[in-house]
Structures are given as C-alpha cells and as structure tokens.
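Entry type: protein chain
Record version: 2
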Amino acid sequence: MTPDDHQPYIVLLSIHGLIRGHNLELGRDADTGGQTKYLVELARALGANAQVGRVDLLTRRVDDPAVSADYAQPRETLSDNVQIVRIDCGEAGYIPKEQLWDSLDSFADSTLEYLKQQARLPDILHSHYADAGYVGVRLTSLLGIPLVHTGHSLGRSKRRQLLAAGHSKEALETRYHITRRIEAEETTLGVAERVITSTQQEVQEQYALYDHYRPEHMRVIPPGTDLQQFYPPQTDSPASPMQAELARFLTQPDKPMILALSRPDPRKNIVELVSAYGESPELQQLANLVIVAGNRDDIRDLDSGAQEVLSDILLTVDQYDLYGKVAYPKHHQAHDVPDLYRLAAASKGVFINPALTEPFGLTLIEAAASGLPIVATDDGGPTDIIGNCRNGYLINPLDRADMAAKLLQVLTSDQQAWETLAQQGLQGVRHHYSWQAHVEKYLAELRPLMARTEATAAAETPPPVTLKRRKQLHHDRALFSDLDQNLLGKPEALAPFLTALQDNRRCVLFGIATGRRLDAAIQLMKRHRIPLPDVLITSLGTEIYYAPNLFPDTAWERHIDHLWNPRIIRRVLDGLPGLEPQAKRDQSRFKISYFINPEIAPDLQQLNSLLHQEGQAVNVVQSFGQFLDIIPVRASKGLALRWVADQRDIPLERILAAGGSGADADMLRGNTLAVVVANRHHEELSELVQEGVNIFFATRPYADGILEAIEHYQFFQSCEVSA
C-alpha cells in the first residue's frame, strides 16, 4: 500500500484491545470497548475522504487460542487505502493493557522499523490512549513527525474513580501501574502538537489536572455518529420486536412517545422525569412515557444504586397511578436502540435526557440522527448539541414544571413545527456530528502541522522536542465551604469569590459540604450560578461526589455502613416528645432526619444515651436549633473532608474549611485552617472558642468573609502557575 506523495499519510496508534474491521467485540473486557469502535470508524472515515492518501491503524498482534485468529494476522485491509497493521508487543497472548508497559519500547522499535520500510514516512502520528502516547513520543522524537493525541480515558481521573470505588493506593500501583501511566500522559501532553477531545468539559475538567496542561493545543472535535445505523424511520421498515415489547405495558400504544434511555444511575435523574410526567395530566393525555434503563432479571440482584433507582421508578409509577401510560422494559439489546429512536420518531414523539450533568450526550446525537426532536439538561454537552442542531429545548433537570413544559412544547406543536425540529436535527448531525464532518474538522487542524513537516523534511533536521512543565502541581491545597451559610446571602460577594477560585483553580481543589441532598444542592447552585465544585459532600457528609460526572464515592458508602442500623434507630426515636420526622425527601440511606423542639425534646446527651442502650453508636447532629440528624458514626462533614484529603494526598494544614453551624464543627477542629464568616458567628460554634480551637472569625459576611480568610492565611500564596 503506497501513499500518494501529494496526499497525507496518517498513522493511528492504538496498542491494546482487540481491533478488527468486522464484528467488533465491544464490551468483551475493559480494553475492548468504545475506543476500538472509534478507531475503526475514524480510520474508515479518513480513508473515504478524497484528500487523504493512506491510513495505517497500528495495533498489537495477538496470537492466542482464547481469541479469534483474526487478531494474529499481520495485516487486515479495511479499504483501498486503509489497513490495520498488527505488530508484535511482548508476549504473544492477549493480556490487559496494564501489563504492556514493559513491552512498549520494543513495540516502538518495531514500529520504527516498519515505518522506515515504507515508501515514505507518515505525515502525522495520532496516538490513542496513554500507552500509544508513550510510543508516539518516542517515534516523534526520532522522526520529527508531528504527534497528535487523544486520551480517551485519563489516568488522573481514573485514579480518583478507582480510589472512590475502594481500591487502595498500593493496589493502583500493583495492578494498574497508575503512576507510570500518568507520567506517560504528562510527557505526551507536553510533546503533542494537538490534543483532540470530544467536549470542552474534557479540556477544562480532565486535562486541566495535568502539569502539561496546554489548552491552546487542544481542539474539541466530537466523534462522528454512524448514520448507517441511526437514521429516520422508513415507510417500508419491518416491524421491530421492541414495538410489541413496549405495547404490553401501554393501554394506548399508538400515542406519541416520550423516550428516555440511560443507565439506572441516580445522576441520570429518571425518577424526577417520572414525577414530572405524573404531575402533568396534559402530558399523560398526550403521550406515553418509555423508560429504558439498562437490563435486569431481578432488581434485587443489581448494585445498590441501580436497585434504588429502579425501585423508585416503580414506586413513582404507583404513586401517580401511571399504569398503562409508562413502559419500562426489562431487557434490550444494542441493536434495539436505533429501533427505539425510530419508534419514537414515527410516533411524532420526543427524546429526553434529564441527567443532572451530561459531559457529552451521545444519545442526543443518536436521537437527532434518527429524526427525533430532543429535550435535555442545560448542563455540559447538550448545550452545544442543541445550539448546533436547533432541534429541541434545554431544561433545568430539577424543575419538574420546566421539564413538563418543554416536553409539551414539542408534543403540542403543529405537524410543520415538529418536522422543522426533526429536519434541523438531521441537518445539524450531518454538519457537526457525522464522521464526514469530524474528518473535515480533523484535517483542517492537521494541515498546518503537515506543512511544517514538509518544511522540516526539506531541511532534513527534525526539530528538537522540548518540554515545559508547569511550576505547580495540580491541587496541592483545598478549600471546603458550607453552601447555605457561607456562599449565599450576598450575591455581590459571591462573584469575586468564584473569580478568585477560578484564577487559582489549578492548585486549589474546591469542595462544598452541605446538609442538603445531592439534587437540592445542585438546584441551589444552578439558581445562584455556582459552578459544580471538584468535590460535593452532601447529606451531612454521608455522600461524596466528584466532578465532572458527579461520580459517587462508593468506597465511602461501604466505609460508613459500619454499625449502621436505621431500623433500630427509628424504633428508639420515633414517638419521642419534640421529635417529628422530616419528609421522606429529606431522608436518605445514611441520614435519619427530624424536626426538634428543644424545649420539650430530650437533649443530645439523653438521645445518645437512649441509642447507646440499644447498642447504637452513631453521630447525632443538631443544627440551627430545629434540625436533628442521625448519621453513621463514621460519617460527618469533617470526616468526609478528611477522607477526600487522604484520597487526594492534600495535608490538612493546606485545607481551608469555612463553616457556619454545629454540623460544620468537626470540619473546623483539628489541623485544618478554619474560618467562620461574620454573619454566622453561630452559638453552636462558640464551644470551639472555649476549646481553644484556632479559628479565624472574619469581620466580613458570607463569601466576603471567606476572601478575608484567604488573605489572613495567605492561602493563595505560591499558587500562581505558568500556563
């Protein structure tokens, strides 16, 4: 396969995973998923562009009886000018990517030999994932060919997720070689002349974690959508099996369909959608609601998060008596998904993504490509998608009335208006989110790099590779604040505080610790335009979530479940004078909440004594004279803060904690830097002064007081970083 001398020769590097041009084994294991599909579709789309001469997708050759013999073939032709080239890398058998690190130098040397055997060197090297980045850096250092990189998954983010899932730091090194991976990513980001990402949020929230963060070299080019798979309904299409599956739930299956498709994850906010539908008689009259939330045989066999979501869906259907109006099938296959979009489009329905946060929104693009108008959360990727496609409406995901109103706006529009939304979505996908559109933007970014390659080739001297590392590591200190008592109450003070945080975000981790539930906290932050913090501690420290995807810390949940028996606690406290249970919405798995009348209720010492007599070791928290919360003995805002500090390796002496009520007391005790702002010198914190705890009492209120504390402690000193 010889490239045309006047057309680009592009080499894609993807070392791990099982890659072939047909019957991709997506989901076979952790290494064979979306990345392999992305690579094959990108290679084919590049080869189909008339401006591209040749594309080689270089990967690892796998000779293993446990996998298909396809992966042992040295070459596989995808089209006239596109091929997969498989190069030996370490042992012949299939092994996880984490075990490849010691073989990457050998792979790089063999790849160098292969490239030198070609009629001419490639114009661009594009590495995918950290291991390919390591190889790409070696090759570009030797050949002077520009390196482009796509991370797909980043080690620093992965490290945080694995720690949150309960893996020890030692296990991360032994099993995942995480430090080695992160260092390879750092070097790759320092050398790569372009970094291709799917969303701006990746640039700002994930790549910004790295010392070699160079946003000026990063380009957002969303991946393409397979328009051969996702397309509008056709008049001659055969009946879909999903149609019969949905019909068994519905009294009037021919009504327009409101379709939601996601994992059964609390962050996907499906229960709020069912409630919005249940509270709108007009929606129920106009349309059926179809919830496709993963696959299940028995809800009780699923993990706790999925159990809770699916149970709440069923309970909410029952609460609003939505039987015959809501479908929630137990099973679906990947090939059923396009049919679901087309069924909804054929019914003149609408697709909705009500997630609390959505970094990209692939389902929205798939729905648009299927001729279906969309309604989506006003966070992250959907704002770009609807802005580009003009095929639907944004919603506040925690405002049921807004959700229902936007759905009605689509469903009650006349035929022409619905068709206009559908057609604008189809055109927008072709222009912005097809593989053809992706390749055109991609090549536009590569042309300046390839022009420099030609100039370098003429000079016959590869440019030296120089790395400029930032002076300051990311997040070497943290600032945690209560939400209601410190950040709100004075809007003119909030803006300068957020600006100061943004100016120092590369070295300061920002956390909010609140007694509110996750959804209530997010709703309040949206109302006051407070951006999502790096860490969100909710429900009095019983839940921890990490940005940008609100990833829950499941290890923390398992940790605080120790000695927790809510049934006994309720038996002891229910019916006591002066205690009234709060609404179910304000309770959670690890928080039992009451309103307390201190004049007639037992005091905290008596309550603790009653619980101890029943063998219950818990934290009893009273705040603002009227709220009483019982949480596990291992949980509190302060303990959650310390858990995060340990996970992130941030010394307590470099954490500024701002509190305002008794619930914040243990955030302020100990070795943290502490501040109580002027408006909240609350009597519940006066005992800390008597204990001699070193707390700075600000003279200014609300966020102004936190800024005063930042000045007092010189908290941002040495925090300036070079870009």
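Comment: The chain has a mean pLDDT of 89.
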